[in-house]
Design goal:
- The chain is an alpha+beta fold.
- The chain has one domain (7-82).
- The protein has two helices and four strands; from the N terminus they run ααββββ.
- The protein has a four-stranded antiparallel β-sheet with strand order 1-2-3-4.
- A hairpin with a 2-residue loop joins strand 1 (44-49) and strand 2 (52-57).
- The chain is globular and about 35 Å long.
- It starts with 6 loop residues before the first helix and ends with a strand.
């Protein structure tokens, strides 16, 4: 498992209810593992964007055709969290 290096990101993860946190940590692991296997994504950095956890890639080419992936939790999502 990848440790969370950014204290602000860790605080957001810690603020989630345990069941949601567990699911988002599984998603985080999948994103980071997959991205680490693709040299074209470059350096991987976790940060906050608009108060939500985001994964930024240093190179423009990445897994989904955009430069970051955000994850969050809230009542507007049918599952309680979204990516």
């Amino acid at each position: 498992m990848y440790s969370i290096q950014n204290d602000a990101v860790k605080s957001v993860f810690d603020s989630f209810p345990p069941d949601i946190r567990k699911q988002l940590l599984v998603l985080r692991e999948l994103i980071l593992t997959t991205a680490s296997m693709i040299p074209e994504v470059g350096k991987i950095e976790e940060t906050l964007k608009w108060g939500e956890i985001a994964v930024n890639f240093s190179k423009q080419m990445n897994l989904f055709g955009f430069c970051n992936i955000t994850r969050g939790f809230g009542p507007s999502s049918a599952f309680g969290y979204a990516a």
